[in-house]
Structure formats: structure tokens, C-alpha cells
Amino acid sequence: MSNIDVDPAAAIGQAVGRVRNVRNVSTVRIGREERTGRVLVVIRVGLPPLLELPDVVNVIAHVQLAAARIAPKGAAVFVEPDVAHDEATPTETIVIRGME
Question: pTM score, two decimals?
């Protein structure tokens, strides 16, 4: 299969899914910034709810790196961690509690 046949969002999702502590990749969106035309990659990943805050930061960095290796050159990569993807507690509650 040539690179032309590969869906970049699917390839990014697969690469990100292999990052340690990523439980799921619920969203990969690729778009362009309105004014500049710069490629934007937005990824939402599910993380373990008991993951320590420094580990969350580490996972985000690895996800960004995995995505940047596949995304078009110069793309901006945004990662939204969902540390409660399988829990009833909203992510915002966990992050706020972790920063207190």
C-alpha cells in the first residue's frame, strides 16, 4: 500500500494507541487553521484514572511526539487527555483535584 492510500488520521490513531498508558484514542481530527492554513491535529486520548499528574504530562508528550512523526511537517498537535474516560467523574474534576 502506498502512502497515498494511508488515511493520516487512522495512522496517527494507531501510533498514538501504542503509547504506554493510552487506553483508547477516541478522536483524531485533522484540519487547517483559518488564517494561515497550517495543519492542525487534535487528539483525544483516554488515560487511566489513577495516573499521577507527572505521568499524565509524560503521556501527553509521547502522544504529541507519536502524532508529529506522522502528521504533515509543521503541523500543530493538540492533545486532550481524558483521565476519566471510563469513570463517572469528569476529567476537569480530576485535573483540578490533582493541581490543588
Answer: 0.76
